[in-house]
Every structure is written in C-alpha cells, then in structure tokens.
Specification:
By secondary structure, this protein is α+β, with helices and mostly antiparallel strands. The protein has two domains: 32 residues, no CATH class; 144 residues, NADH Oxidase, CATH 3.40.109. It contains six helices and four strands. Helix 2 packs across helix 4. The longest helix has 18 residues.
C-alpha cells in the first residue's frame, strides 16, 4: 500500500487528525458534547434529503444500563470498546418516507452522517470510532429498533487516552483510489 503522509496542506486539519483509537480516557462526555457532535451529523447530504439516520447513544455515567445493552451487541474482538465512556449504534430507515420504496442509499447516507460526526468529535477534542464488529440482529432486539430500520454500525466515543501520531497511519495513493472515466483508468 502506498503512503502519503502528510496529506496535502489544504485539507481540513480534522481529516488528518482523525484516527481510530482503542484506548479512551475514563473522563465523562457531557450530553451537550454528544448533542454537538450529532448536530454535525444532521447536516450530512442524503438521497432526496431523506436523512434516514438515527443514533442510539448511551453514556456510562448517566445511562449504565443502556451502555451495557449496546456493549452486549459487540463481538469479542471489540471488547476494548467497553471502556469507552459512550457507546452507540447508528440506525437507518431502509425505505423512503415519501413513497415507502426501498432506499438503496440508506447505509451510504448514514455513513456520511457518521463521518461528519467523527470529524466534529476531532474538532471537539474527542474521538469517535466506528465498528462493524457487532451483532445487528441482537442490537435490533435489545435496543427495540422498529421494523423498517436497520442497525448499521456500532461506535465508541470519548476522549482519547493518548493521541496517536498521524504520521504512523497509512493510506492508499490517490491514483489507487481515484479513477477517471472508468474503473482503473487514470484521472485526466
């Protein structure tokens, strides 16, 4: 894999500062801080402006039962996340409100909203790490997610215990991910 570090200086600084921590400080995250991060998510673009996303969030200090419920959906490889002061599940409505038809973009749109939340978390001095390693069916059951909605990803939120050096991260080269005209063709 090619590496570009640092990225072009003209990128938003939060993009390069964002990383996925596994070690969170025990410091609590306030309700206002959580709301601020998810206000950013609200502004994500979505197909037909459907905004299919919902976020189930539980802070250990204020909702220990909710934190435990969400934690119970994680796969064993994500047990490290149980130390995060906040756990959550992103949820998406699978149909369009305007006509009831299947929305093929619900996961894409919810991912876009989560990306904005992750960047806002960085700006606020926190870290939001998404995880695919969770049991979506169990989440639907224990979190009482209504039919027509789907658990998309789990996430951990909190203050990072230590800030990892962004220079240690690797990313594919731009020419490996950006094509022109057809797949694999260099951009002109």
């Amino acid at each position: 894999m090619g590496v570009i570090n640092p990225p072009p200086a003209t990128l938003l600084p939060a993009i390069h500062r964002r990383y996925s921590t596994r070690v969170f400080s025990p410091r609590n995250v306030s309700k206002e801080q959580i709301e601020h991060i998810f206000h950013a998510a609200r502004w994500a673009a979505s197909s037909s402006n459907e905004q299919p996303w919902h976020f189930i969030v539980a802070a250990r200090d204020r909702d220990p039962e909710g934190h435990t419920r969400i934690g119970s959906t994680l796969v064993p490889g994500n047990a490290w996340a149980l130390t995060a002061p906040v756990l959550g599940i992103s949820v998406a409505r699978t149909t369009f409100l305007r006509n009831g038809r299947h929305n093929p973009y619900y996961k894409h749109d919810t991912g876009a909203a989560m990306a904005l939340a992750a960047l806002q978390a960085v700006e606020d001095g926190l870290n939001l790490r998404q995880m695919g390693g969770f049991d979506a069916a169990k989440a639907a059951e224990v979190l009482e997610i209504p039919e027509g909605n789907e658990a998309v990803a789990a996430f951990a939120l909190g203050y990072p215990e230590t800030v990892e050096a962004p220079a240690e991260r690797q990313r594919k080269l731009i020419e490996d991910v950006l094509f022109g005209g057809k797949f694999g063709q260099p951009l002109v």
